[in-house]
Design a protein that fits this description.
Order of helices and strands: HHHHHEEEEEEEEHEEHHHH
Strand order of the largest sheet: 1-4-5-8
Number of helices: 10
Bound molecules: flavin-adenine dinucleotide
CATH topology of the largest domain: Butyryl-CoA Dehydrogenase, subunit A, domain 3
Radius of gyration: 21 Å
Number of strands: 10
CATH architecture of the largest domain: Up-down Bundle
Distance between the termini: 46 Å
Structural class: alpha+beta
C-alpha cells in the first residue's frame, strides 16, 4: 500500500468551531491512525483478519468509551470529541471504527446507562482499557430491520435466568469476552443481559466470506440453555427503547465516521488527479475530473456541518433520534457515492489494494446497511415529519 499522505480537507474552516481540546483529541487519533492502522490495514483486510494488536492503541486514544466518565475508565470527553475520534478511525478503516463503536456505544453505553453500580465497576474499566472486548446482540436470522419481533428468550428459573435463541451479524462476536444481549422475558418484554464467554451453552461461530468490513470480525451468538446469573440483567431500562438508545449513540458516531472515509477517498483522488498525466496534462486539469472533485468537497463540507451541529445538539441533550437518523443516512450515502466517484478518478489503479478507496467502498456497503438501513432511516424521517409510520 502507498504511504499515508492524508491531508484533511476543511473547506469552510470548520476547525474554528472546535475547541483546543477537540483539536488535540482529533490530532492524536489522526497520528495514531497514520502510524498504526494505515501501514497494516490493507493486508489485514485482504486476509479478512482483525488486527488484535491495535486494541491497546484504540484504548489509548480514548476510542473505548470516549464520553464515559473517567471514574469508570472512560475518557470523559464531550460528544464532538467522540465524533472526531470516530471520524479519524474510519478515515483509516470502517471495520476498525466498527470495533470501537460497538465497544463504546453498544456495550459500554448500556452498562453505564442501564446497569447497576456493581456492573459498571465490574465491566467498564476493563472495557475501556481493552482488557475485555464486547459485542452487542440485537439482530437475529429472522429479525433485522424489525428487532421488536425477536425470538431470543429468557426464563426466570428462580436463582438464574435460562437464555435460548440466536443472534446473527454480530460485530466482535468471535473474540468478545462480554456480550450485551437483547432478549424477551416470559411476558414478551425486551431486556438486556450481560453474557460472558465461557458460560455453558454459549458459542460464537465466525461469519466468513464477507466482501465488506473484512478487517472486522463478525459472528453469530448461539444460546443453548445458557444459565445467566440474575445479577447480569441490566435493570435500568427495558423495552425496544433500551437497545434503540444505544443505537442512537452508535449512529451518531457513524455519521462522523463516514466523513472520515469520504475525506480519505477525496484526498486520495485529488492527489492522484494532480499527478496523473494523460493527453499531456494532469487529469485534474480536465473539466470532468474537476466536476467529480468539486462535488466531493461540497458534499463533505455539508456533511461536516450536519455532524458538527448534531454534536452540539447531542451535547445539550437535545438531539432527537430522527435527527440522528438523518445524519447517519445522509453522511453514509455521501461517503459511498464519493468512494465510487473517487475510484473512477484513479482509473484501473483504483481497484487495487495500493490505494484505500476500494476497501472504503466495500466497507461502506455494510455501514449503509447496519445500525438501520438506508431505507429504514428514510422512513424514520418520513414518520417524523408526517406522523405516519410507513414501515410498520
Ligand atoms: C458487517 C455487519 C455487522 C453488523 N453488526 C451488528 C452487530 O454488531 N449487532 C447487531 O445486532 N446487528 C449487526 N448487524 C446487523 C444489521 O444491523 C442488520 O443487517 C440490519 O439491521 C438489516 O437487517 P437485515 O440484514 O436482516 O435486512 P432486512 O431487515 O431483511 O432488510 C432487507 C431489505 O429490506 C428493506 N426493508 C426492511 N423492512 C422494510 C420496510 N418496512 N419498508 C421498506 N423496506 C424495508 C431494508 O431496507 C433492506 O434493504 C451487522 C450487519 C453487518 C452486515
Amino acid at each position: 500500500m502507498k504511504p499515508d499522505l492524508f491531508e484533511a480537507p476543511d473547506y469552510y474552516n470548520l476547525d474554528e468551531l472546535l475547541t483546543e481540546e477537540h483539536k488535540l483529541v482529533r490530532d492524536a487519533a489522526r497520528s495514531w491512525v497514520k502510524r498504526e492502522v494505515s501501514p497494516i490495514i490493507e493486508d489485514y483486510a485482504q486476509r479478512a483478519a482483525f488486527p488484535e494488536q491495535i486494541i491497546g492503541g484504540l484504548a489509548e486514544i480514548g476510542a473505548f468509551g470516549p464520553y464515559i466518565p473517567e471514574e469508570y475508565g472512560g475518557a470523559g470527553l464531550d460528544q464532538i470529541s467522540y465524533g472526531l475520534i470516530m471520524q479519524e478511525i474510519e478515515r483509516g478503516d470502517s471495520g476498525v471504527r466498527s470495533t470501537a463503536s460497538v465497544q463504546s456505544s453498544l456495550v459500554m453505553y448500556p452498562i453505564w446507562k442501564y446497569g447497576t453500580e456493581e456492573q459498571r465497576k465490574k465491566y467498564l474499566p476493563k472495557l475501556a482499557s481493552g482488557e475485555y472486548m464486547g459485542c452487542f446482540g440485537l439482530t437475529e436470522p429472522n429479525h433485522g430491520s424489525n428487532p421488536g419481533g425477536m425470538e431470543t428468550k429468557f426464563k426466570d428459573m428462580g436463582d438464574h435466568y435460562l437464555l435460548n435463541g440466536a443472534k446473527l451479524w454480530i460485530s466482535n462476536a468471535p473474540f468478545a469476552q462480554v456480550a450485551v444481549v437483547w432478549a424477551k422475558n416470559e411476558e414478551g418484554r425486551i431486556h438486556g443481559l450481560i453474557v460472558e464467554r465461557g458460560m455453558e451453552g454459549f458459542s460464537t461461530p465466525e461469519t466468513h466470506n464477507k466482501w465488506s468490513l473484512r478487517a472486522s470480525a463478525t459472528g453469530e451468538l448461539i444460546f443453548d440453555n445458557v444459565k445467566v446469573p440474575k445479577e447480569n440483567l441490566l435493570p435500568g431500562k427495558s423495552g425496544l427503547g433500551a437497545p434503540l438508545g444505544c443505537l442512537d449513540s452508535a449512529r451518531f458516531g457513524i455519521a462522523w465516521g463516514a466523513i472520515g472515509a469520504a475525506m480519505d477517498c477525496y484526498d486520495t483522488a485529488l492527489r492522484y488527479a494532480k499527478e496523473r498525466v494523460q493527453f499531456d496534462k494532469p487529469i485534474a486539469a480536465t473539466q470532468l475530473q474537476q466536476k467529480k472533485l468539486a462535488e466531493m468537497i461540497t458534499e463533505i463540507t455539508k456533511a461536516q456541518l450536519l455532524a458538527w451541529r448534531l454534536g452540539v445538539l447531542r451535547e445539550q441533550g437535545k438531539a432527537t433520534s430522527a435527527q440522528i437518523s438523518m445524519a447517519k443516512r445522509n453522511n453514509v450515502d455521501m461517503a459511498i457515492k464519493i468512494a465510487r466517484e473517487a475510484r473512477q478518478v484513479l482509473g484501473g489503479m483504483g481497484i487495487t489494494g495500493e490505494y484505500s478507496i476500494m476497501r472504503h467502498m466495500m466497507n461502506l456497503e455494510s455501514v449503509i446497511t447496519y445500525e438501520g438501513t438506508h431505507d429504514i432511516h428514510l422512513l424514520i424521517t418520513g414518520m417524523d415529519i408526517t406522523g405516519h409510520a410507513a414501515f410498520k
